[in-house]
Structure formats: structure tokens, C-alpha cells
Automatic annotation (TrEMBL), chain A:
InterPro entries: FSCA_dom_sf, MIP18, MIP18-like. Gene3D superfamilies: 6.10.250.1280, Fe-S cluster assembly (FSCA). The gene is LOC104701448. It comes from the Eukaryota. The keyword tRNA processing does not apply. PANTHER family: CYTOSOLIC IRON-SULFUR ASSEMBLY COMPONENT 2B, CYTOSOLIC IRON-SULFUR ASSEMBLY COMPONENT 2B-RELATED. This is Protein AE7. Keywords: Chromosome partition. Residues 39-107 form the MIP18 family-like domain. Pfam families: FeS_assembly_P (PF01883). Belongs to the MIP18 family. It comes from Camelina sativa (False flax).
From TrEMBL, chain B:
This is Probable cytosolic iron-sulfur protein assembly protein CIAO1 homolog. It comes from Camelina sativa. The lineage of its organism: Eukaryota, Viridiplantae, Streptophyta, Embryophyta, Tracheophyta. Keywords: Repeat, WD repeat. Signal peptide: none annotated. The keyword Repeat applies. InterPro entries: CIAO1/Cia1 (IPR028608), WD40/YVTN_repeat-like_dom_sf (IPR015943), WD40_PAC1 (IPR020472), WD40_repeat_dom_sf (IPR036322), WD40_rpt (IPR001680). Essential component of the cytosolic iron-sulfur (Fe/S) protein assembly machinery. Required for the maturation of extramitochondrial Fe/S proteins. WD repeats lie at residues 16-55, 70-102, 114-146, 159-190, 209-240, 313-352.
Length: 158, 352
């Protein structure tokens, strides 16, 4: 993609240091660790933005606080902030987050994805599409779309 | 018999494994039941692009997969419906086509493929006499097809009044009135005047007439055809009614009105609702549970009210996409389909 980017000059935020997990309280190897906010954020922070060679974390599209998780009830909600109000890539970004979580989290998890309130011109329409699982399923049967999503989910060669 | 007084539970009779992806829908063959001397038959359709036909053995009472309908649809098969005679099975697919399969005893053959929708077909329904078929799609339209001689189907109408993806179509159980529900949050009623009339939208049930505030996923009628239940992404079930006697006797369309809303019972999207012949409403939702509701029979000036009869938590390991009561009298068998790839057969029984 040369020109015609929706957001030509995205703000790239300085990289936050990654916190090491030093939880030594659970020494029982058979008890699964409860899934927490940081673990889910780790799954999505490196998703590449569909238009730029930056991650969703770099562009502050997702932050640790954008993840709300309730492991006891197997529920997670991710609220993402598209870089621009009229970003037509919003549904692609939302789809990438959903696919990454579907592939990474246990099957028991219910996943809700939404754009940050007030951050997008057609917020309700985007949210509705992202949370209609029949529409998501049909979209993921589209090879072109799957290719685009897989590109975003590929780990960067850093 | 007051169901609320009996201590009832939903007992899992059998788990049917075989599909390799989520199961979207199930459909009971209308003419088969042990009472008819014919083994009960159930069809299920899946994201694995196939339809499986399950049959219950009269000897062992266990269900096995009789045949797999494959290599026809190239994408998810979203729903299926048996013709009233039980001889044909229609299958609606994301590949944009609707397959018509004929039951030749041990084998099924795809005898016709209905094309026309611009993208994914979501639902298919036969009218009471089997003379009409209706389909609907993400292309926002509802198509009515007429069966002709020699496995030919003619498009009788293309109805384009929904403003979004149409999720389900359902013919009225006794009259040739068609109902559709959509991502546009409405339910539309399609009716044709007289014998030669064109089908047109005679009513839209939306938020302004106590309708749903989000996608409506399913519609189901009671046996008498004077009431229907709809379920939605707004996490409510709504009961609607009409004066069926007036509608059947006269030439005029009689509007449906909202009777009751069941809210606060479901925590996630309700994907399916089905009204049994003995007036139990089953619901299948995104919280993996199956719920049963019955009319409370409390006469109230505000209209009927419904009570939760029972809730089956963790009916499946994932979302319940479809619940369907079997047609046979007194059997009270319920089939369910889920994102966990399973089909389950349940029975309503009194707790020991």
C-alpha cells in the first residue's frame, strides 16, 4: 500500500517496558492460573495494524486497561480505540482481535469486542457487526479477509 | 395439568457426535416417529459444510448417523427444513445456494439447487402444504419459490423491504402468510391477497410497536397459529398474538400485536426459540443454556405472562444455536445444536 492510507500520520507511542511475571505463589503445576488482564493483553498487543507497520499497542489502539476480564465467568471484553474517527479499518481491527482471542483463549470464553465509546463515527454499526457471530463466521469464510487477518496476526520479525 | 407444579428436569438422552465444526441447526422430519411405525429422523447442519441425518433405532433406542450429505455445499450449511411430506430436505448455505434433497431410503440425492441470492442464505422454510419454499439472505431479501413438475423451482417473488441481513424465514403453520426477522431489528409479515395476489409486506414489528431493540434471530409459532415467540440479541423473548379466527375467515389481514416480553432471564444473545405442541417454549442462548417457559395461566388484564419452567445450565460446552421440539405427541423430545459441534437429544421428565 503506497498512498491512499486512511491515516497517513499515525501517532506512535513510545514502547512500554514489558513487565515480567514473577508470581511465585502458585507452585501447584496442575492448578491452572486464572487468566488475567495482562495475559489477554499479551495476546493482542502485537497484532499489527492493517495499514501501518506498527502494532495495536504502538498506536494505543489497545492498552492493558482496554481489557476487562472475569475469569470465573469466562468473560472478556476488549474496547479498542481506532486511530481515527472515520477509520474504515475499524471492523478489520476488531475482527483481528476477536480471531486472535478465539485462537488463544480456552473455548469456554465469551468474547465481546467494541470500539471505545465516542471514538468512531459509526460506533453502533461497527459494534453490532463485530458481535454478530454469524456475520463473523461468514466473513472468516472469505479467503481474502482471512489472508488480511492472518497478515495482521503474524508475529513481527523484530 | 399444571406443569409448574410438577418438579421437572431436562434429561440428556444422547449426544450425537460427528460434525467437525459448529452445528447451526437441527430439524425433525415431520412424518417420522415411533407412533407412525417409522423411526424418528433428525437432520443437522454445520460449519463443516455438511448435513447429517440421524435416525433412532426402534430396537436399541439409540441414535446413529444414517448418512452425511456432503460434497454439494461449498460453505457452511446454516439451516435445513423438511417438506411437510417428509420426502424432501431443503438446505440453506453460506455459498449462496439452497439445496433440495430427496430421500431415497438409505441415500439422499440433491435433486435441485436454487440460485439467486447474492450472498449467504441464512434460512429456508416450507409452507404448510409444501407448495412454497421461502429463503432469506444477507443480501437483505426474502425469496419465495414455487415447486413445479420434475424437481423444478420457479422464483415466485423477491421481497426486498428489510434494510439489513435477514436471519430467518418462517411460514405460518396453517395459512400462507410468511414471516421474516432481521439484523434490522424487525419482524416483517408478508401476505398475498386472494389466489393471484402478489406477496407484499403488510406489517413490520419494530421498536415502535414494542418490538426488539437488536437483531431478531428466530420466530416460532404455537400449534394453533394464533401466537408466536421471537428471540433477539437484545436478550429478550417476545410473545405476539393475533385473532386467527378472524384472519382465517375473512379476506383481510389481521395485524399481530405484542402480548408479553420475557426479559431478565438471559445473559447473552438468544439464538433460537421453539414452541412445542404442548405449549412449552424452549430457548437456546449464547450462555450455553437451554431454558423452558410456560404460560403462567394467571388471567391478567395486561395479557398473558410466562414463567420460567426450568433452566439447564451448561446444556452444551458452548453457545446453543438451535432448539427444536419433536413433532410427535406426548414425546416431549428436544433436540439442540451448539458451537461445541454436538447435537443433543433431551427429554422433559419428572424428577425422581
Amino acid at each position: 500500500m503506497v498512498s491512499g492510507l486512511i491515516n497517513e500520520n499515525p501517532i506512535i507511542y513510545p514502547k512500554k517496558e514489558r513487565r515480567l511475571r514473577t508470581d511465585s505463589s502458585n507452585t501447584d503445576e496442575f492448578t491452572p492460573e486464572p487468566i488475567d488482564q495482562l495475559e489477554i493483553f499479551d495476546h493482542i498487543r502485537d497484532i499489527k495494524d492493517p495499514e501501518h507497520p506498527n502494532t495495536l499497542e504502538d498506536l494505543r489502539v489497545v492498552t492493558e486497561d482496554s481489557v476487562e476480564v472475569d475469569d470465573d465467568n469466562s468473560y472478556v471484553r476488549v474496547t479498542f480505540t481506532p486511530t481515527m474517527e472515520h477509520c474504515s479499518m475499524a471492523t478489520i481491527i476488531g475482527l483481528c482481535v476477536r480471531v486472535k482471542l478465539l485462537r488463544s483463549l480456552p473455548a469456554r470464553y465469551k468474547i465481546d469486542i467494541r470500539v471505545a465509546p465516542g471514538s468512531h463515527a459509526t460506533e453502533d454499526a461497527v459494534n453490532k457487526q463485530l458481535n454478530d457471530k454469524e456475520r463473523v463466521a461468514a466473513a472468516l469464510e472469505n479467503p481474502n479477509l482471512v489472508e488480511m487477518v492472518d497478515e495482521c496476526l503474524l508475529p513481527s520479525a523484530e | 395439568m399444571d406443569l409448574m407444579e410438577k418438579n421437572l428436569e431436562l434429561v440428556e438422552i444422547q449426544k450425537l457426535e460427528g460434525h467437525t465444526d459448529r452445528v447451526w441447526s437441527v430439524a425433525w422430519n415431520p412424518v417420522s416417529s415411533h407412533a407412525d411405525g417409522v423411526s424418528p429422523i433428525l437432520a443437522s447442519c454445520s460449519g463443516d459444510n455438511t448435513v447429517r441425518i440421524w435416525e433412532q433405532s426402534s430396537l436399541s433406542r439409540s441414535w446413529t448417523c444414517k448418512t452425511v450429505l456432503e460434497e454439494t455445499h461449498t460453505r457452511t450449511v446454516r439451516s435445513c427444513a423438511w417438506s411437510p411430506s417428509g420426502e424432501l430436505l431443503a438446505t440453506a448455505s453460506f455459498d449462496g445456494t439452497t439445496g433440495i434433497w430427496k430421500n431415497y431410503g438409505s441415500e439422499f440425492e440433491c435433486v435441485a439447487t436454487l440460485e439467486g441470492h447474492e450472498n449467504e442464505v441464512k434460512s429456508v422454510s416450507w409452507n404448510a402444504s409444501g407448495s412454497y419454499l421461502a429463503t432469506c439472505s444477507r443480501d437483505k431479501s426474502v425469496w419465495i419459490w414455487e415447486g413445479l413438475e420434475g424437481n423444478e423451482y420457479d422464483c415466485a417473488a423477491v421481497l426486498s423491504e428489510h434494510t439489513q441481513d435477514v436471519k430467518m424465514v418462517q411460514w405460518h403453520p396453517t395459512m400462507d402468510v410468511l414471516f421474516s426477522c432481521s439484523y434490522d431489528d424487525t419482524i416483517k409479515v408478508w401476505w398475498s391477497q386472494g389466489d393471484d395476489g402478489e406477496f407484499e409486506c403488510v406489517q413490520t414489528l419494530g421498536e415502535s410497536n414494542n418490538g426488539h431493540s437488536s437483531t431478531v434471530w428466530a420466530i416460532s409459532f404455537n400449534a394453533a397459529g394464533d401466537k408466536m415467540v421471537t428471540c433477539s440479541d437484545d436478550r429478550t423473548l417476545k410473545i405476539w398474538g393475533t385473532d386467527i379466527a378472524r384472519m382465517q375467515s375473512g379476506e383481510e389481514y389481521v395485524p399481530w400485536t405484542h402480548l408479553c416480553t420475557l426479559s431478565g432471564y438471559h445473559d447473552r444473545t438468544i439464538y433460537s426459540a421453539h414452541w412445542s405442541r404442548d405449549d412449552i417454549i424452549a430457548s437456546g442462548a449464547g450462555d450455553d443454556a437451554i431454558r423452558l417457559f410456560v404460560d403462567s395461566k394467571d388471567d391478567s388484564v395486561d395479557g398473558p405472562s410466562y414463567n420460567l419452567l426450568l433452566k439447564k445450565n451448561k446444556a452444551h460446552d458452548n453457545d446453543v444455536n438451535c432448539v427444536q421440539w419433536s413433532r410427535s405427541e406426548g414425546d416431549q423430545l428436544l433436540a439442540s445444536a451448539s458451537d461445541d459441534g454436538m447435537v443433543k437429544i433431551w427429554q422433559v421428565a419428572t424428577k425422581p
